[in-house]
Specification:
heterodimer, A: alpha/beta, 8-stranded mixed beta sheet, B: alpha+beta, 4-stranded antiparallel beta sheet, globular
Chain lengths: ~300, ~90
């Protein structure tokens, strides 16, 4: 993966080469599979990270839903790096990878990510086109079958929050949803990594109702936020999506929860607005380091409550 | 198309005290192309919150005039998006 760096933003071709390299170099810990292709025909890669063992519970982590949120794919790469670096060296990660698998989807919206590198840094949606409109793209986080297009989403193809012509209309969201459906019996937690605003959210976002294990999830994100803040003092707010941030239907965390994955979270990483989507590369390291603490906290809880 | 350069584009943070101001934000979004950063769209703006949005260089004066005429409290978070965009590549390894 020539030119790849964990402390730089990497273009898609570099990330794709890295995916192959990290899997090839760590066959005892990482396997790679392709779960689909994007609208423009790129392969959607998924890494399975964990010590091979029959019937292990798993945690699914995805990055890069929204194309311009570059810190998100940077975190997925960082997570894999840390897994490889610390397995067999640090007890917590070793225990996690011995007892759990992590499915890591490094970039969901690959076409959009490529577009931010080549045409417009501020692009958000997918790059699909539909008959009858000259506008491009669907908001992948409005495209899941969770109160699909009811609130906080737009039916206009030109809107940045366009929900699409149908739930899972996008090849990228369909591939992700199909994989989770096929592996529902093992996936115990779902984490989707976004930016910005420094929040940890749990269901629901498509309505003001609360999940049945609201108190458990609230305590979990509170603990995770405390862990995160312990490194650099970064403050995260947390709670159910609808009241903590805003109503938004069609999100992947709500969908995963309704599929039966009772530990489902959205992370909104740094910052709170100074740079927004243009977070400097010098903040990749501290952002990923502190996020690792929160993810490890949640993963450890899931390990203890399979 | 060539790569968009964002020169002169700005990002605003606007305080929204009540429903009247939400309606004004929606009115602004209907008249000028606004890229919402937080929340994701005009329909998600809530009272007693702030709204972050990105405006093209040619619309900056119009937006500022609108905000001032309607007595919004606001700040310019990013004075020139192009500069911040270039500055994001500040890694010492680059």
């Amino acid at each position: 993966a020539t030119g790849h760096s964990y402390t730089k933003y990497n273009k898609w071709e570099t990330i794709e080469a890295w995916i192959q390299e990290v899997a090839n170099n760590n066959p005892d810990l990482i396997s790679r599979r392709t779960i689909g292709t994007t609208f423009e025909g790129r392969n959607i890669h998924l890494l399975k990270v964990g010590k091979p063992k029959a019937s292990k519970p798993a945690i699914f982590i995805d990055c890069g839903f929204h194309a311009r949120e570059w810190i998100s794919p940077a975190f997925c790469q960082w997570f894999v790096k840390e897994a490889v670096r610390t397995y067999g060296q640090e007890s917590q990660m070793t225990k996690l990878l011995d007892e759990l698998d992590f499915y890591v989807l490094p970039v969901v919206n690959i076409d959009g990510y490529v577009y931010t590198w080549t045409r417009s840094r501020m692009w958000r949606k997918t790059r699909s086109t539909k008959a009858g409109s000259s506008c491009v793209g669907v908001d992948p986080n409005r495209n899941f079958n969770a109160g699909w297009c009811e609130v906080g989403a737009s039916r206009s193809p030109c809107s940045d929050t366009y929900c699409g012509p149908a739930a899972e209309s996008e090849k990228e969201t369909k591939a992700l949803a199909d994989f989770i459906r096929q592996n529902l019996s093992s996936i115990k937690a779902y984490l989707t990594i976004h930016s910005y605003s420094q929040m940890m959210l749990y269901p629901y976002s498509y309505a003001y109702k609360l999940p049945s294990n609201n108190e458990e999830l609230k305590a979990l994100v509170k603990g995770a936020a405390t862990e995160l803040a312990s490194l650099y003092g970064t403050k995260y707010t947390y709670g159910p999506g609808a009241t903590t941030i805003y109503l938004a239907a069609g999100g992947s965390d709500d969908w995963a929860y309704d599929q039966g994955i009772k530990y489902s979270f959205t992370f909104e990483l740094r910052d709170t607005g100074t740079y927004g989507f243009l977070l400097p590369e010098s903040q990749i390291r501290p952002t990923c380091e502190e996020t690792m603490l929160a993810v490890m906290y949640i993963a450890n809880y899931v390990r203890e409550h399979p | 198309p060539s790569q968009e350069d964002f020169d002169g584009n700005q990002v605003f943070r606007v305080s929204v005290p009540n429903e009247d101001h939400i309606n004004l934000i929606q009115e602004l979004a209907n008249s000028v192309q606004i890229d919402f950063w937080k929340p994701d769209s005009a329909t998600q703006v809530k009272p007693l919150t702030t709204v972050d949005f990105h405006v093209k260089a040619e619309d900056v004066a119009t937006v500022e005039k609108f905000l001032e005429q309607n007595e919004f409290h606001y700040e310019v978070l990013i004075g020139n998006v192009r500069n911040v965009l270039e500055a994001q590549f500040d890694s010492h390894t680059r």
